[in-house]
Design a protein that fits this description.
NACHT LRR and PYD domain-containing protein, alpha/beta, elongated, 30 helices, 12-stranded parallel β-sheet, 8% strand, NLR
């Protein structure tokens, strides 16, 4: 309710008065207490402003009591009828003279407002539905306490808030039947009414209304019995939303025992291991939704990787921006529940990961109903490894074709879709309403995809066909479409696709095309051979090439020859126009010292572009590392990880390493230090391996006073052999 402007105004009004008048500064703790205080404030305002009384005078004057009773009667009768807007005749029936009330009653003017209807008729309403519900509950409570009459037994009522009591109007029965009727409400319209009604049963709240009530008093047995009854209903209620309201009711009765149990489990970290009762699950939902922490990402595994847990925690999923439900043993039953969440107008869900669950085609069909809802705002959906077939593609194709769909990222990897499935999916991709930007389809079907991309080329940005068998012919079909000037595809992943050098020829043509938008290409784990890389290099050298990221690791190269080909590319003035963060991945390419020499030469000729070089799972040797280090300008912390591995190697004899003028950052130095600490390292570490290091140059860095103090503490160590320490920024080195 803190997002409702009227409630914020009520809260501010009450807090201002309470802080001004209460010496101890005790603030209202429940919703009922807040609204009672608001009513008291408005009654005091009327007494002083309209009646000319003093602030110390009793504020429950006969006129004020009559006005509140009349407004309460109006609120209750119209709530019974389901009306939020009333006419002057409705006010007259409840004994309210609109003209006299608007002139003389501050209470009336502050909580009631007048508007013009469609035909310029005067219509009236309370400033907010919660005010109407509070006054309705107050009216029922006052009548029950003052007259021992249960208004909810009125057989003349025309609305579905009927007979809460058929027997003697005992308080215990009165509140229990009120709970039952609220739970039976199909749309929850009695939820807030019930909270106020139960809150008004407390002695502390009745004391605040002294003067309005002819008598006060509530037996502790009544409260205890009501609390136990509500807890029993929480155990029995399958609806999470209704259970949440019952926790709010317990809060109004100042009972937080269930909540405290779960809070203790959360703090101890044993929640995911405990077997929770339905009431405890509901308590967890209440805690998560009431928490001040951001509900940006909900990860089911933090609580329990089970379908029961998901169904219990659905309100939390509904309130989150992203739900991570991967590998949680979910089935089609979960899909039906999630479909309801997606269809809800109040849902905040934007990203849903259901990967690695046995949803099957039937589950996706149920989910699709929610995805097609005009209220669905989901932009990302992960269905990797969900045992789907081509039948799921038909349902998802319908979603992609829907005008109301917001889906932009769809992951269908690791499913057995077959070419027939991709063909069905392609029908959705061809729709002008399709907004898909990222699609990881694990099937062949390149011909269907190429056709779909030609029909609707403007949206798809990323295509991942890794771990498929498109073949060189499939890549040729896709490549032809990628040269279309209307295509916006910027990422193509073809890892582990059994491609040969023939694919490189087609892709080289794409890279050379002036109209191509391709910026990231993954060809790792294929059989490209040296000839394929040479073909690819021709495209990379084109002045029209926009590629920023290239991965060709784990291909069958001879090592030296491939780096010669890449050297020509790197040296070229118009090759990969590397910007910040651009990467060349050559891991597992059998690169040796000779290859490093070629790469070093290339990097020295064109040092301004390449920011990251991955040579993991190669054999560069110490000499190769030294060659690369000598030309490494603009390296980042990622390079430190590889160098750390070299320093830790038993076979390494590297004793001199120059990494100056690089953007290693503190994180890079931390990675490098792991290698320096190794007993195999011949470069020497500062703390764990202090006996070797003789010279340390930190010039043109920002260690700060605290950093220098840390180093100084180490210099006092008798085992350190550091002779020279340089630091400083601009100008001559400062020697210590």
């Amino acid at each position: 309710m803190c997002h409702i402007p009227v409630f914020c105004w009520i809260t501010a009004t009450v807090l201002e008065e309470v802080l001004k008048t209460r010496k101890r500064g005790e603030l209202p703790k429940t919703l009922t207490e807040m609204y009672i205080h608001f009513l008291v404030v408005q009654s005091k305002l009327k007494k002083v402003k309209y009646d000319g009384g003093a602030e110390t005078d009793p504020h429950w004057s006969p006129e004020t009591r009559k006005m509140i009773e009349s407004l309460g009667k109006l609120a209750f009768e119209q709530l019974q009828k389901g009306n939020l807007i009333f006419y002057e005749s409705d006010l007259t029936e409840c004994g309210i003279d609109i003209r006299a009330a608007s002139v003389n009653s501050g209470v009336f003017t502050q909580i009631f407002k007048e508007e013009r209807g469609l035909y310029q008729d005067k219509v009236f309403c309370f400033i907010h539905l919660s005010v109407q519900e509070f006054l309705a509950a107050l009216h029922v409570h006052l009548t029950f306490i003052n007259s021992e009459v249960n208004l909810l037994l009125d057989k003349q009522s025309t609305y579905c808030l009927p007979k809460l009591l058929w027997d003697k109007p005992e308080p215990t029965n009165f509140y229990q039947r009120a709970v039952d009727e609220a739970l039976q409400s199909p749309n929850g319209h009695l939820d807030l009414f019930l909270r106020f009604l139960l809150g008004l049963s407390l002695q502390t709240n009745q004391t605040l209304l002294r003067g309005l009530l002819s008598q006060t008093g509530s037996r502790s047995e009544t409260k205890k019995t009501t609390v136990q009854y509500i807890k029993k209903k929480i155990e029995e209620t399958p609806s999470a939303e209704k259970s949440i309201n019952l926790f709010h009711c317990l809060n109004e009765l100042n009972d937080r025992s269930l909540v405290k149990q779960i809070q203790q489990s959360l703090r101890s970290g044993r929640l995911s291991k405990d077997k929770l009762s339905p009431a405890q699950w509901s308590a967890l939902v209440f805690i998560l939704l009431s928490s001040e922490e951001d509900l940006d990402v909900f990860d089911l595994k933090k609580y329990s990787a089970s379908e029961e847990a998901l169904l219990r925690l659905l309100p939390v999923v509904k309130a989150s921006n992203r739900a991570v439900l991967s590998g949680c043993n979910l089935s089609g039953r979960s899909c039906e529940a999630l479909s309801s969440v997606l269809s809800s107008q109040s849902s905040s869900l934007r990203d849903l990961d259901l990967s690695n669950n046995n949803l099957n085609d039937s589950g996706v069909k149920l989910l699709s109903a929610g995805l097609e809802s005009p209220h669905c705002k989901l932009g990302g959906l992960g269905l990797s490894g969900c045992k789907l077939s081509e039948r799921s593609c038909e349902a998802l194709s319908s979603v992609l074709s829907s005008q109301s769909s917001s889906l932009r990222d769809l992951d269908l990897s690791n499913n057995d879709l077959q070419d027939s499935g991709v063909k069905l999916l392609s029908a959705g991709l061809e729709s002008p309403h399709c907004k898909l930007e990222g699609c990881q389809v694990t099937e062949e079907g390149c011909a269907s995809l190429a056709s779909a991309l030609s029909s609707n080329p403007s949206h798809l940005r990323e295509l991942d066909l890794s771990y498929n068998h498109p073949g060189d012919s499939g890549v040729n079909l896709l490549s032809a479409g990628l040269e279309d000037p209307h295509r916006r595809l910027d990422t193509l992943r073809l890892s582990v696709c059994k491609l040969s050098e023939r694919s490189c020829e087609a892709l080289s043509s794409v890279l050379s095309s002036q109209s191509s938008s391709l910026r990231d290409l993954d060809l790792s784990n294929n059989n490209l051979q040296d000839s394929g890389v040479k073909l690819l290099s021709a495209g990379l050298e084109s002045p029209h090439c926009k590629l920023e990221g290239l991965s060709i690791n784990h291909n069958k190269f001879t090592g030296f020859r491939v780096t010669v080909a890449l050297q020509e590319v790197i040296v070229s003035q118009c090759n990969l126009p590397f910007s910040d963060g651009n990467t060349l991945v050559l891991s597992g390419c059998q690169v040796t010292e000779e290859g490093c020499a070629s790469l070093a030469s290339a990097l020295s000729s064109n040092p301004s572009h390449l920011k990251e070089l991955d040579l993991s799972y190669n054999h560069p040797g110490d000499s190769g590392v030294k060659l690369l280090s000598s030309c490494g300008r603009g390296l980042t912390e990622r390079s430190c990880e590889a160098l750390s591995s070299v320093l830790s190697s038993q076979s390494s004899s590297l004793r001199d390493l120059d990494l100056s003028n690089n953007d290693l950052q503190d994180s890079g130095v931390k990675l490098l230090s792991a290698g320096l600490e190794s007993p195999q390292c011949k470069l020497e570490a500062l703390s764990s391996n202090p006996s070797h290091l003789k010279e340390l140059d930190l010039s043109y860095n920002h260690p700060g006073d605290s950093g220098v103090k840390l180093l100084s503490a180490g210099l006092e160590d008798p085992h350190w052999r550091l002779e020279t320490l340089r630091y400083g920024q601009i100008g001559p080195y400062e020697w210590i």
